[in-house]
């Protein structure tokens, strides 16, 4: 059953996809309020009329009452092992915080939308994909009423922090893009495409669970 976006809550709100997602939500007429959970107040978000920022040092302190009454919850939260400083810190952010956030909506009617990653698999040889896969498994075993999982490939867009390898990959793929077939499962997608897909599926998905692969995200011409 589809549901109009009326009140939305977002973690990962100041990331590359999160900022665009909130801007798009702010433009939806039916959306009355957007809560951005952030560690530091963000000046760009202050300029959006429907956005209220909740500043928290520790997202694990969020409780059921904090997130009651939202029609939709969006997680754009993610980092890299290099930025996190260790595998343990990466796991704490990408799995533990995301899992806690999802758990808060168990037994409610909130539609939960998550950015995962292409190749997410708990049994993967790559730690990054293992963690993404574990998080997906956690969601599948939860009591969430509606789940959308997006699995984008390399994301193209402007980040606040430097990621040299990703920047290099973006440059290479942009240079070769004209040589790639229109439908290529590893083809990078833009942050705007991912954000727009999140908004679209939040309003149109009828299944209890659906996973959107990179090819489906590519089809979004945002």
Automatic annotation (TrEMBL):
Q: Name one Pfam family in it.
A: Semialdhyde_dh
Q: Which domain of life is it from?
A: Bacteria
Q: What are the recorded GO MF terms, alphabetically?
A: NAD binding; oxidoreductase activity, acting on the aldehyde or oxo group of donors, NAD or NADP as acceptor
Any idea where the Semialdehyde dehydrogenase NAD-binding domain is?
Answer: 8-83
Which InterPro entries does the record match to this protein? NAD(P)-bd_dom_sf (IPR036291), Semialdehyde_DH_NAD-bd (IPR000534)
PANTHER family documented for this protein: OXIDOREDUCTASE HTATIP2
Recorded protein name is: Nucleoside-diphosphate sugar epimerase
Q: Which organism is it from?
A: Acinetobacter lanii
Lineage, uppermost ranks: Bacteria, Pseudomonadati, Pseudomonadota, Gammaproteobacteria, Moraxellales
